[in-house]
Amino acid sequence: MLSSLYIRNLALIREITVEFAKGLSIITGETGAGKSMLVGGLSLVLGERASSDLVRTGENKAVIEAVFTGDLSGRLAPLLDETGIEWGPETLLRREISASGQSRCFINDTPCPVGILKQAGELLIDLHGQHDHQLLLNAASHEAMVDAFSGSLPESEHYREAYCRIKRLSDEQQQLAERYRLAMERKEMTEFQFGELSELELKEGEEEEIENEIMLLENAETLFGLGSELAGLLYEGDRSAFAVLSSARHLLERLAGIDRRFEERIEEVRSAEGSVEELYRYVNRYTATVEFNSERLDTLRSRQYQLQRARKKYGKTIAELIAWRDEMAAALDIEESIAEEKTKLENQMRLQQAALSSAAVALSEKRKKGAARLDETLQHELSKLGISGARFRTVFSAEPAPEGDIMLDGTRFRALGNGHEKIEFLFSANTGEDPRPLAKAASGGEISRVMLALKSALAESAALPILVFDEIDTGISGSTARAVAASLKRLSRLHQIIAITHLPQIAAVADQHLWVSKTTGNGRTETEVVRLDETAHIRAVATLISGRSVSESSLKLAGELVREAKSV
Question: What is the pTM of this model?
Fold first, then answer.
Protein backbone atom coordinates (compact mmCIF):
# COMPACT_ATOMS: atom_id res chain seq x y z
CA MET A 1 0.00 0.00 0.00
CA LEU A 2 0.93 3.67 -0.36
CA SER A 3 1.68 4.68 3.21
CA SER A 4 2.81 8.27 2.71
CA LEU A 5 3.38 10.99 0.13
CA TYR A 6 5.81 13.85 0.78
CA ILE A 7 5.80 16.93 -1.47
CA ARG A 8 7.98 20.06 -1.21
CA ASN A 9 7.99 23.16 -3.40
CA LEU A 10 5.55 21.87 -6.00
CA ALA A 11 3.24 24.63 -7.35
CA LEU A 12 1.24 25.92 -4.34
CA ILE A 13 2.56 23.22 -2.04
CA ARG A 14 5.43 24.45 0.15
CA GLU A 15 5.80 21.26 2.18
CA ILE A 16 3.30 18.59 3.13
CA THR A 17 3.32 14.95 4.22
CA VAL A 18 0.16 12.96 3.64
CA GLU A 19 -0.31 9.68 5.48
CA PHE A 20 -2.61 7.16 3.79
CA ALA A 21 -4.48 4.23 5.29
CA LYS A 22 -5.89 1.00 3.93
CA GLY A 23 -9.35 1.01 2.40
CA LEU A 24 -10.89 4.12 0.83
CA SER A 25 -9.14 7.49 1.16
CA ILE A 26 -11.23 10.41 -0.09
CA ILE A 27 -9.72 13.80 -0.93
CA THR A 28 -11.98 16.86 -1.02
CA GLY A 29 -11.46 20.60 -0.66
CA GLU A 30 -11.99 24.01 -2.13
CA THR A 31 -11.76 24.56 -5.86
CA GLY A 32 -8.20 25.51 -6.76
CA ALA A 33 -6.82 24.46 -3.38
CA GLY A 34 -4.51 21.87 -4.92
CA LYS A 35 -6.39 18.54 -4.76
CA SER A 36 -5.33 17.51 -8.21
CA MET A 37 -1.78 18.62 -7.40
CA LEU A 38 -1.60 15.76 -4.90
CA VAL A 39 -2.38 13.33 -7.70
CA GLY A 40 -0.07 15.30 -9.98
CA GLY A 41 2.76 14.94 -7.47
CA LEU A 42 2.04 11.24 -7.22
CA SER A 43 2.13 10.89 -11.00
CA LEU A 44 5.50 12.69 -11.10
CA VAL A 45 7.05 10.35 -8.55
CA LEU A 46 5.69 7.48 -10.67
CA GLY A 47 7.73 8.70 -13.64
CA GLU A 48 5.38 10.95 -15.61
CA ARG A 49 6.78 13.85 -17.67
CA ALA A 50 8.03 16.73 -15.50
CA SER A 51 8.24 20.47 -16.17
CA SER A 52 10.28 23.16 -14.43
CA ASP A 53 7.11 25.29 -14.40
CA LEU A 54 5.85 23.10 -11.56
CA VAL A 55 8.63 24.22 -9.19
CA ARG A 56 7.32 26.69 -6.62
CA THR A 57 8.23 30.27 -7.47
CA GLY A 58 11.53 31.30 -5.92
CA GLU A 59 12.68 27.76 -5.08
CA ASN A 60 15.53 25.79 -6.63
CA LYS A 61 13.80 22.42 -6.87
CA ALA A 62 10.71 20.42 -6.07
CA VAL A 63 10.92 17.08 -4.25
CA ILE A 64 8.31 14.31 -4.18
CA GLU A 65 8.67 11.09 -2.20
CA ALA A 66 6.28 8.13 -1.99
CA VAL A 67 6.67 5.33 0.54
CA PHE A 68 5.13 1.93 -0.18
CA THR A 69 4.85 -0.83 2.40
CA GLY A 70 3.77 -4.45 2.32
CA ASP A 71 5.09 -7.42 0.37
CA LEU A 72 5.95 -5.90 -3.00
CA SER A 73 8.75 -8.32 -3.84
CA GLY A 74 6.68 -10.37 -6.27
CA ARG A 75 6.13 -7.31 -8.46
CA LEU A 76 9.23 -5.20 -7.95
CA ALA A 77 12.01 -7.70 -7.20
CA PRO A 78 12.72 -8.72 -10.83
CA LEU A 79 12.96 -5.09 -11.95
CA LEU A 80 15.09 -3.98 -9.00
CA ASP A 81 17.37 -7.02 -9.21
CA GLU A 82 17.93 -6.34 -12.91
CA THR A 83 18.90 -2.72 -12.22
CA GLY A 84 21.01 -3.48 -9.13
CA ILE A 85 18.71 -1.71 -6.66
CA GLU A 86 18.31 -3.20 -3.19
CA TRP A 87 14.76 -3.91 -2.05
CA GLY A 88 13.01 -4.81 1.17
CA PRO A 89 9.68 -4.53 3.01
CA GLU A 90 9.55 -0.76 2.34
CA THR A 91 10.02 0.90 -1.05
CA LEU A 92 10.85 4.59 -1.44
CA LEU A 93 10.41 6.40 -4.75
CA ARG A 94 11.81 9.94 -5.01
CA ARG A 95 11.78 12.52 -7.78
CA GLU A 96 13.61 15.86 -7.78
CA ILE A 97 12.74 18.51 -10.36
CA SER A 98 15.03 21.54 -10.60
CA ALA A 99 13.98 25.02 -11.66
CA SER A 100 16.39 24.66 -14.59
CA GLY A 101 14.34 21.74 -15.92
CA GLN A 102 16.59 18.84 -14.89
CA SER A 103 15.11 15.84 -13.11
CA ARG A 104 16.67 13.21 -10.84
CA CYS A 105 15.07 9.93 -9.83
CA PHE A 106 15.76 7.50 -7.01
CA ILE A 107 14.46 4.14 -5.82
CA ASN A 108 15.43 3.25 -2.26
CA ASP A 109 17.95 6.13 -2.40
CA THR A 110 19.67 4.61 -5.44
CA PRO A 111 19.78 6.89 -8.53
CA CYS A 112 17.97 5.49 -11.55
CA PRO A 113 16.72 6.62 -14.99
CA VAL A 114 13.21 8.02 -15.17
CA GLY A 115 12.24 5.03 -17.34
CA ILE A 116 13.01 2.64 -14.47
CA LEU A 117 11.06 4.84 -12.06
CA LYS A 118 8.12 4.75 -14.46
CA GLN A 119 8.30 0.95 -14.76
CA ALA A 120 8.29 0.65 -10.97
CA GLY A 121 5.34 3.03 -10.74
CA GLU A 122 3.34 1.04 -13.29
CA LEU A 123 3.89 -2.07 -11.16
CA LEU A 124 2.60 -0.34 -8.02
CA ILE A 125 -0.29 1.99 -8.86
CA ASP A 126 -3.15 2.18 -11.33
CA LEU A 127 -3.65 5.94 -11.55
CA HIS A 128 -6.91 6.86 -13.25
CA GLY A 129 -6.82 10.53 -14.18
CA GLN A 130 -9.40 12.51 -16.07
CA HIS A 131 -7.59 11.77 -19.36
CA ASP A 132 -8.29 8.05 -18.87
CA HIS A 133 -11.90 8.68 -19.88
CA GLN A 134 -10.50 9.44 -23.31
CA LEU A 135 -8.35 6.31 -23.12
CA LEU A 136 -11.49 4.23 -22.62
CA LEU A 137 -13.05 5.85 -25.67
CA ASN A 138 -10.05 4.70 -27.74
CA ALA A 139 -10.70 1.18 -29.02
CA ALA A 140 -6.94 0.51 -29.08
CA SER A 141 -6.97 0.30 -25.26
CA HIS A 142 -9.74 -2.31 -25.09
CA GLU A 143 -7.50 -5.21 -26.04
CA ALA A 144 -5.34 -4.84 -22.91
CA MET A 145 -8.44 -4.75 -20.69
CA VAL A 146 -9.78 -7.95 -22.24
CA ASP A 147 -6.40 -9.63 -21.76
CA ALA A 148 -6.27 -8.55 -18.12
CA PHE A 149 -9.76 -9.89 -17.41
CA SER A 150 -9.54 -13.10 -19.43
CA GLY A 151 -6.09 -14.05 -18.19
CA SER A 152 -4.89 -14.38 -21.78
CA LEU A 153 -1.53 -12.68 -21.22
CA PRO A 154 0.44 -15.97 -21.68
CA GLU A 155 -1.37 -16.64 -24.98
CA SER A 156 -0.83 -13.00 -25.97
CA GLU A 157 2.91 -13.28 -25.27
CA HIS A 158 3.12 -16.55 -27.20
CA TYR A 159 1.40 -14.89 -30.17
CA ARG A 160 3.72 -11.86 -30.03
CA GLU A 161 6.79 -14.12 -30.09
CA ALA A 162 5.46 -15.92 -33.17
CA TYR A 163 4.54 -12.57 -34.76
CA CYS A 164 8.06 -11.21 -34.17
CA ARG A 165 9.55 -14.29 -35.83
CA ILE A 166 7.27 -13.73 -38.82
CA LYS A 167 8.36 -10.09 -39.02
CA ARG A 168 12.03 -11.07 -38.91
CA LEU A 169 11.52 -13.60 -41.72
CA SER A 170 9.58 -11.03 -43.73
CA ASP A 171 12.41 -8.52 -43.27
CA GLU A 172 14.91 -11.15 -44.43
CA GLN A 173 12.80 -11.84 -47.52
CA GLN A 174 12.67 -8.13 -48.34
CA GLN A 175 16.42 -7.81 -47.87
CA LEU A 176 16.96 -10.84 -50.13
CA ALA A 177 14.72 -9.32 -52.80
CA GLU A 178 16.68 -6.06 -52.58
CA ARG A 179 19.98 -7.93 -52.90
CA TYR A 180 18.63 -9.68 -56.00
CA ARG A 181 17.42 -6.40 -57.50
CA LEU A 182 20.78 -4.71 -56.98
CA ALA A 183 22.63 -7.76 -58.30
CA MET A 184 20.50 -7.76 -61.45
CA GLU A 185 21.13 -4.03 -61.93
CA ARG A 186 24.88 -4.64 -61.72
CA LYS A 187 24.87 -7.92 -63.62
CA GLU A 188 25.72 -6.57 -67.11
CA MET A 189 28.66 -4.52 -65.83
CA THR A 190 29.80 -7.39 -63.60
CA GLU A 191 29.70 -9.84 -66.51
CA PHE A 192 31.80 -7.47 -68.65
CA GLN A 193 34.39 -6.87 -65.94
CA PHE A 194 34.52 -10.54 -65.00
CA GLY A 195 35.01 -11.51 -68.67
CA GLU A 196 37.79 -8.97 -69.11
CA LEU A 197 39.67 -10.16 -66.03
CA SER A 198 39.06 -13.81 -66.83
CA GLU A 199 40.62 -13.34 -70.29
CA LEU A 200 43.75 -11.97 -68.65
CA GLU A 201 44.17 -15.26 -66.75
CA LEU A 202 45.82 -13.45 -63.87
CA LYS A 203 48.15 -15.36 -61.57
CA GLU A 204 49.67 -14.44 -58.21
CA GLY A 205 53.29 -13.16 -58.58
CA GLU A 206 53.13 -13.05 -62.36
CA GLU A 207 54.16 -9.39 -62.56
CA GLU A 208 57.38 -10.01 -60.60
CA GLU A 209 58.22 -13.04 -62.71
CA ILE A 210 57.75 -11.05 -65.95
CA GLU A 211 59.87 -8.18 -64.70
CA ASN A 212 62.70 -10.57 -63.80
CA GLU A 213 62.57 -12.37 -67.17
CA ILE A 214 62.49 -9.09 -69.12
CA MET A 215 65.51 -7.94 -67.17
CA LEU A 216 67.42 -11.09 -68.21
CA LEU A 217 66.42 -10.93 -71.88
CA GLU A 218 67.19 -7.23 -72.18
CA ASN A 219 70.70 -7.85 -70.76
CA ALA A 220 71.46 -11.17 -72.50
CA GLU A 221 74.51 -9.82 -74.41
CA THR A 222 75.93 -8.22 -71.29
CA LEU A 223 75.40 -11.39 -69.29
CA PHE A 224 77.05 -13.55 -71.97
CA GLY A 225 79.99 -11.20 -72.38
CA LEU A 226 80.65 -10.85 -68.70
CA GLY A 227 80.31 -14.59 -68.20
CA SER A 228 82.78 -15.35 -71.00
CA GLU A 229 85.26 -12.80 -69.66
CA LEU A 230 84.92 -14.26 -66.18
CA ALA A 231 85.49 -17.78 -67.51
CA GLY A 232 88.71 -16.59 -69.17
CA LEU A 233 89.99 -15.01 -66.00
CA LEU A 234 89.17 -18.08 -63.99
CA TYR A 235 90.48 -20.93 -66.14
CA GLU A 236 91.43 -20.09 -69.67
CA GLY A 237 94.85 -18.68 -70.61
CA ASP A 238 98.38 -18.85 -69.18
CA ARG A 239 97.65 -16.15 -66.61
CA SER A 240 94.20 -17.40 -65.49
CA ALA A 241 93.46 -17.79 -61.80
CA PHE A 242 93.62 -21.57 -62.08
CA ALA A 243 97.01 -21.48 -63.88
CA VAL A 244 98.46 -19.09 -61.30
CA LEU A 245 97.23 -21.31 -58.46
CA SER A 246 98.73 -24.41 -60.16
CA SER A 247 102.09 -22.68 -60.40
CA ALA A 248 101.80 -21.64 -56.75
CA ARG A 249 101.06 -25.22 -55.74
CA HIS A 250 104.17 -26.51 -57.55
CA LEU A 251 106.32 -23.99 -55.74
CA LEU A 252 104.80 -24.97 -52.38
CA GLU A 253 105.45 -28.62 -53.07
CA ARG A 254 109.15 -27.88 -53.70
CA LEU A 255 109.27 -25.76 -50.52
CA ALA A 256 107.60 -28.54 -48.51
CA GLY A 257 110.25 -30.96 -49.79
CA ILE A 258 112.80 -28.82 -47.92
CA ASP A 259 110.65 -27.50 -45.01
CA ARG A 260 107.68 -29.63 -43.98
CA ARG A 261 105.95 -26.62 -42.42
CA PHE A 262 104.72 -25.74 -45.95
CA GLU A 263 102.84 -29.04 -46.33
CA GLU A 264 99.66 -27.81 -44.67
CA ARG A 265 99.55 -24.80 -47.01
CA ILE A 266 99.56 -27.08 -50.05
CA GLU A 267 96.00 -28.26 -49.17
CA GLU A 268 94.79 -24.67 -48.93
CA VAL A 269 96.00 -24.00 -52.49
CA ARG A 270 94.47 -27.24 -53.77
CA SER A 271 91.11 -26.16 -52.17
CA ALA A 272 91.36 -22.77 -53.90
CA GLU A 273 92.03 -24.56 -57.17
CA GLY A 274 88.86 -26.63 -56.66
CA SER A 275 86.77 -23.53 -55.91
CA VAL A 276 88.03 -21.71 -58.99
CA GLU A 277 87.39 -24.79 -61.14
CA GLU A 278 83.82 -25.14 -59.73
CA LEU A 279 83.08 -21.46 -60.29
CA TYR A 280 84.45 -21.78 -63.85
CA ARG A 281 82.08 -24.70 -64.59
CA TYR A 282 79.08 -22.72 -63.16
CA VAL A 283 79.91 -19.69 -65.32
CA ASN A 284 80.26 -21.91 -68.39
CA ARG A 285 76.89 -23.54 -67.72
CA TYR A 286 75.31 -20.12 -67.15
CA THR A 287 76.63 -18.55 -70.32
CA ALA A 288 75.50 -21.61 -72.26
CA THR A 289 71.88 -20.97 -71.07
CA VAL A 290 71.81 -17.22 -71.75
CA GLU A 291 68.83 -16.75 -74.07
CA PHE A 292 68.88 -14.37 -77.01
CA ASN A 293 65.09 -14.31 -77.81
CA SER A 294 63.63 -11.06 -79.12
CA GLU A 295 60.23 -12.65 -79.79
CA ARG A 296 59.97 -13.82 -76.18
CA LEU A 297 60.97 -10.34 -75.02
CA ASP A 298 58.23 -8.75 -77.14
CA THR A 299 55.69 -11.21 -75.77
CA LEU A 300 56.68 -10.43 -72.18
CA ARG A 301 56.59 -6.69 -72.77
CA SER A 302 53.11 -7.02 -74.28
CA ARG A 303 51.94 -9.04 -71.24
CA GLN A 304 53.48 -6.52 -68.88
CA TYR A 305 51.59 -3.73 -70.63
CA GLN A 306 48.29 -5.67 -70.27
CA LEU A 307 48.82 -6.08 -66.55
CA GLN A 308 49.80 -2.43 -66.06
CA ARG A 309 46.75 -1.26 -68.00
CA ALA A 310 44.44 -3.49 -65.90
CA ARG A 311 45.96 -2.16 -62.67
CA LYS A 312 45.57 1.44 -63.82
CA LYS A 313 42.03 0.95 -65.13
CA TYR A 314 40.63 -0.60 -61.94
CA GLY A 315 42.97 1.01 -59.43
CA LYS A 316 43.88 -2.33 -57.86
CA THR A 317 46.95 -4.51 -57.52
CA ILE A 318 47.10 -7.81 -59.38
CA ALA A 319 46.38 -9.67 -56.12
CA GLU A 320 43.34 -7.42 -55.54
CA LEU A 321 42.15 -7.95 -59.13
CA ILE A 322 42.35 -11.74 -58.68
CA ALA A 323 40.31 -11.51 -55.44
CA TRP A 324 37.78 -9.21 -57.14
CA ARG A 325 37.46 -11.58 -60.10
CA ASP A 326 36.64 -14.43 -57.71
CA GLU A 327 34.07 -12.24 -55.91
CA MET A 328 32.43 -11.41 -59.24
CA ALA A 329 32.31 -15.10 -60.10
CA ALA A 330 30.37 -15.68 -56.88
CA ALA A 331 28.17 -12.65 -57.57
CA LEU A 332 27.29 -13.96 -61.02
CA ASP A 333 26.05 -17.14 -59.35
CA ILE A 334 23.68 -15.08 -57.16
CA GLU A 335 20.54 -16.14 -59.00
CA GLU A 336 21.16 -19.73 -58.04
CA SER A 337 22.21 -18.94 -54.48
CA ILE A 338 19.31 -16.52 -53.95
CA ALA A 339 16.88 -19.08 -55.34
CA GLU A 340 18.13 -21.56 -52.76
CA GLU A 341 17.93 -18.98 -49.96
CA LYS A 342 14.49 -17.88 -51.14
CA THR A 343 13.20 -21.47 -51.00
CA LYS A 344 14.67 -21.88 -47.52
CA LEU A 345 12.99 -18.68 -46.26
CA GLU A 346 9.68 -19.64 -47.84
CA ASN A 347 9.75 -22.99 -46.06
CA GLN A 348 10.55 -21.30 -42.77
CA MET A 349 7.80 -18.74 -43.39
CA ARG A 350 5.20 -21.47 -44.00
CA LEU A 351 6.15 -23.14 -40.72
CA GLN A 352 6.00 -19.85 -38.82
CA GLN A 353 2.69 -18.87 -40.42
CA ALA A 354 1.25 -22.17 -39.22
CA ALA A 355 2.61 -21.49 -35.73
CA LEU A 356 1.25 -17.92 -35.81
CA SER A 357 -2.16 -19.14 -36.97
CA SER A 358 -2.26 -21.68 -34.14
CA ALA A 359 -1.26 -19.00 -31.61
CA ALA A 360 -3.91 -16.64 -33.02
CA VAL A 361 -6.63 -19.27 -32.58
CA ALA A 362 -5.60 -20.02 -28.99
CA LEU A 363 -5.47 -16.30 -28.13
CA SER A 364 -8.81 -15.58 -29.80
CA GLU A 365 -10.57 -18.42 -28.02
CA LYS A 366 -9.22 -17.36 -24.62
CA ARG A 367 -10.13 -13.73 -25.22
CA LYS A 368 -13.64 -14.50 -26.44
CA LYS A 369 -14.42 -16.67 -23.43
CA GLY A 370 -13.12 -13.91 -21.16
CA ALA A 371 -14.96 -11.23 -23.11
CA ALA A 372 -18.28 -13.08 -22.72
CA ARG A 373 -17.76 -13.14 -18.95
CA LEU A 374 -16.62 -9.51 -18.99
CA ASP A 375 -19.77 -8.41 -20.85
CA GLU A 376 -21.95 -10.17 -18.31
CA THR A 377 -19.97 -8.80 -15.36
CA LEU A 378 -20.05 -5.24 -16.67
CA GLN A 379 -23.77 -5.30 -17.32
CA HIS A 380 -24.26 -6.45 -13.73
CA GLU A 381 -21.90 -3.74 -12.38
CA LEU A 382 -23.50 -1.04 -14.52
CA SER A 383 -26.89 -2.08 -13.24
CA LYS A 384 -25.65 -1.52 -9.69
CA LEU A 385 -24.27 1.85 -10.81
CA GLY A 386 -27.71 3.02 -11.92
CA ILE A 387 -27.74 2.05 -15.61
CA SER A 388 -30.28 -0.76 -15.37
CA GLY A 389 -30.88 -0.95 -19.12
CA ALA A 390 -27.19 -1.07 -19.99
CA ARG A 391 -26.01 -3.41 -22.68
CA PHE A 392 -22.30 -3.98 -23.01
CA ARG A 393 -20.75 -6.05 -25.76
CA THR A 394 -17.16 -6.81 -26.75
CA VAL A 395 -16.85 -7.31 -30.50
CA PHE A 396 -14.02 -8.95 -32.43
CA SER A 397 -13.27 -8.16 -36.07
CA ALA A 398 -10.64 -9.66 -38.36
CA GLU A 399 -9.45 -8.29 -41.69
CA PRO A 400 -9.20 -10.81 -44.57
CA ALA A 401 -6.08 -10.30 -46.67
CA PRO A 402 -4.94 -12.43 -49.64
CA GLU A 403 -1.31 -12.09 -48.53
CA GLY A 404 -2.05 -12.35 -44.81
CA ASP A 405 0.14 -14.47 -42.54
CA ILE A 406 -2.75 -16.10 -40.65
CA MET A 407 -4.75 -18.91 -42.24
CA LEU A 408 -8.04 -19.88 -40.58
CA ASP A 409 -10.56 -22.23 -42.18
CA GLY A 410 -9.12 -21.64 -45.63
CA THR A 411 -9.15 -17.82 -45.35
CA ARG A 412 -6.11 -15.63 -44.88
CA PHE A 413 -6.18 -12.76 -42.41
CA ARG A 414 -3.84 -9.88 -41.79
CA ALA A 415 -1.69 -10.42 -38.69
CA LEU A 416 -1.79 -7.57 -36.17
CA GLY A 417 0.80 -6.93 -33.49
CA ASN A 418 -1.18 -8.74 -30.80
CA GLY A 419 -3.69 -11.01 -32.47
CA HIS A 420 -5.50 -11.08 -35.76
CA GLU A 421 -8.65 -9.40 -34.42
CA LYS A 422 -9.39 -5.84 -33.42
CA ILE A 423 -11.32 -5.57 -30.16
CA GLU A 424 -13.84 -2.84 -29.38
CA PHE A 425 -16.33 -2.22 -26.60
CA LEU A 426 -19.90 -1.39 -27.65
CA PHE A 427 -22.37 0.18 -25.23
CA SER A 428 -26.00 1.11 -24.96
CA ALA A 429 -27.46 2.81 -21.90
CA ASN A 430 -31.08 2.41 -22.96
CA THR A 431 -33.30 -0.60 -23.57
CA GLY A 432 -34.10 -1.10 -27.21
CA GLU A 433 -31.04 0.75 -28.47
CA ASP A 434 -28.36 -1.30 -30.22
CA PRO A 435 -24.92 -1.09 -28.66
CA ARG A 436 -22.58 1.33 -30.41
CA PRO A 437 -18.93 2.33 -29.89
CA LEU A 438 -18.43 3.96 -26.50
CA ALA A 439 -17.34 7.25 -28.04
CA LYS A 440 -20.72 7.55 -29.80
CA ALA A 441 -23.03 6.01 -27.24
CA ALA A 442 -21.96 7.13 -23.74
CA SER A 443 -22.29 10.47 -21.99
CA GLY A 444 -19.61 11.78 -19.63
CA GLY A 445 -21.35 10.38 -16.57
CA GLU A 446 -21.89 7.03 -18.25
CA ILE A 447 -18.22 6.83 -19.28
CA SER A 448 -17.22 7.40 -15.64
CA ARG A 449 -19.44 4.54 -14.54
CA VAL A 450 -18.24 2.24 -17.34
CA MET A 451 -14.67 2.92 -16.23
CA LEU A 452 -15.52 2.20 -12.59
CA ALA A 453 -17.36 -0.96 -13.63
CA LEU A 454 -14.28 -2.07 -15.56
CA LYS A 455 -12.05 -1.38 -12.58
CA SER A 456 -14.40 -3.39 -10.38
CA ALA A 457 -14.53 -6.25 -12.87
CA LEU A 458 -10.74 -6.31 -13.16
CA ALA A 459 -10.16 -5.90 -9.42
CA GLU A 460 -9.84 -9.55 -8.49
CA SER A 461 -7.56 -10.40 -11.42
CA ALA A 462 -5.47 -7.21 -11.21
CA ALA A 463 -2.05 -7.46 -9.62
CA LEU A 464 -1.96 -3.78 -8.65
CA PRO A 465 -2.85 -3.18 -4.99
CA ILE A 466 -3.48 0.57 -5.30
CA LEU A 467 -6.06 2.41 -7.41
CA VAL A 468 -6.15 6.20 -7.67
CA PHE A 469 -9.16 8.04 -9.16
CA ASP A 470 -9.02 11.72 -10.02
CA GLU A 471 -12.66 12.86 -10.39
CA ILE A 472 -14.29 9.52 -11.20
CA ASP A 473 -17.57 11.31 -10.42
CA THR A 474 -17.60 13.39 -13.62
CA GLY A 475 -21.14 13.91 -14.92
CA ILE A 476 -23.03 12.06 -12.16
CA SER A 477 -25.17 13.03 -9.19
CA GLY A 478 -28.04 11.88 -6.96
CA SER A 479 -28.75 8.16 -6.76
CA THR A 480 -26.07 7.46 -9.33
CA ALA A 481 -23.51 9.07 -7.04
CA ARG A 482 -24.62 6.74 -4.22
CA ALA A 483 -24.21 3.76 -6.51
CA VAL A 484 -20.72 4.89 -7.47
CA ALA A 485 -19.87 5.41 -3.80
CA ALA A 486 -21.04 1.89 -2.97
CA SER A 487 -18.96 0.49 -5.81
CA LEU A 488 -15.84 2.33 -4.64
CA LYS A 489 -16.43 1.06 -1.12
CA ARG A 490 -16.71 -2.54 -2.31
CA LEU A 491 -13.60 -2.11 -4.45
CA SER A 492 -11.67 -0.78 -1.46
CA ARG A 493 -12.07 -4.13 0.30
CA LEU A 494 -9.74 -5.62 -2.35
CA HIS A 495 -7.52 -2.62 -3.05
CA GLN A 496 -6.31 0.55 -1.44
CA ILE A 497 -8.38 3.29 -3.11
CA ILE A 498 -7.51 6.99 -3.24
CA ALA A 499 -10.13 9.22 -4.87
CA ILE A 500 -10.70 12.94 -5.41
CA THR A 501 -14.38 13.84 -5.45
CA HIS A 502 -16.81 16.76 -5.32
CA LEU A 503 -19.81 14.63 -4.39
CA PRO A 504 -21.00 14.25 -0.78
CA GLN A 505 -22.38 10.75 -1.46
CA ILE A 506 -18.87 9.54 -2.37
CA ALA A 507 -17.04 11.51 0.33
CA ALA A 508 -19.38 10.02 2.95
CA VAL A 509 -18.10 6.47 2.43
CA ALA A 510 -14.47 7.38 3.16
CA ASP A 511 -12.43 5.29 5.56
CA GLN A 512 -10.09 8.27 5.66
CA HIS A 513 -11.08 11.79 4.65
CA LEU A 514 -8.37 14.29 3.65
CA TRP A 515 -9.32 17.96 3.37
CA VAL A 516 -7.26 20.20 1.06
CA SER A 517 -7.28 23.96 1.57
CA LYS A 518 -5.09 26.93 0.82
CA THR A 519 -3.91 29.68 3.11
CA THR A 520 -2.28 33.05 2.45
CA GLY A 521 0.46 34.54 4.59
CA ASN A 522 3.52 36.72 4.08
CA GLY A 523 2.37 37.40 0.56
CA ARG A 524 2.41 33.70 -0.44
CA THR A 525 -0.32 31.10 -0.97
CA GLU A 526 0.18 27.59 0.35
CA THR A 527 -1.74 24.34 0.12
CA GLU A 528 -2.46 22.39 3.28
CA VAL A 529 -3.81 18.86 3.78
CA VAL A 530 -5.59 17.80 6.96
CA ARG A 531 -6.80 14.36 7.99
CA LEU A 532 -10.33 14.78 9.37
CA ASP A 533 -11.78 13.14 12.44
CA GLU A 534 -15.38 11.93 12.32
CA THR A 535 -16.88 15.30 13.29
CA ALA A 536 -14.80 17.19 10.74
CA HIS A 537 -15.55 14.46 8.22
CA ILE A 538 -19.30 15.03 8.60
CA ARG A 539 -18.81 18.79 8.33
CA ALA A 540 -16.71 18.39 5.17
CA VAL A 541 -19.49 16.26 3.65
CA ALA A 542 -21.97 18.97 4.62
CA THR A 543 -19.76 21.54 2.87
CA LEU A 544 -20.03 19.50 -0.31
CA ILE A 545 -23.81 19.56 0.07
CA SER A 546 -24.39 23.23 0.77
CA GLY A 547 -21.11 25.05 0.09
CA ARG A 548 -19.24 27.18 2.60
CA SER A 549 -22.44 28.15 4.49
CA VAL A 550 -23.02 24.91 6.37
CA SER A 551 -26.57 24.72 7.68
CA GLU A 552 -28.12 22.46 10.30
CA SER A 553 -30.03 20.62 7.58
CA SER A 554 -26.86 19.99 5.54
CA LEU A 555 -25.07 18.74 8.67
CA LYS A 556 -27.99 16.43 9.41
CA LEU A 557 -28.04 15.10 5.86
CA ALA A 558 -24.26 14.66 5.95
CA GLY A 559 -24.57 12.68 9.18
CA GLU A 560 -27.18 10.43 7.61
CA LEU A 561 -24.94 9.83 4.57
CA VAL A 562 -22.01 8.91 6.80
CA ARG A 563 -24.12 6.54 8.92
CA GLU A 564 -25.53 4.90 5.79
CA ALA A 565 -22.00 4.49 4.46
CA LYS A 566 -21.07 2.33 7.42
CA SER A 567 -23.60 -0.25 6.32
CA VAL A 568 -22.34 -0.44 2.71
Answer: 0.63
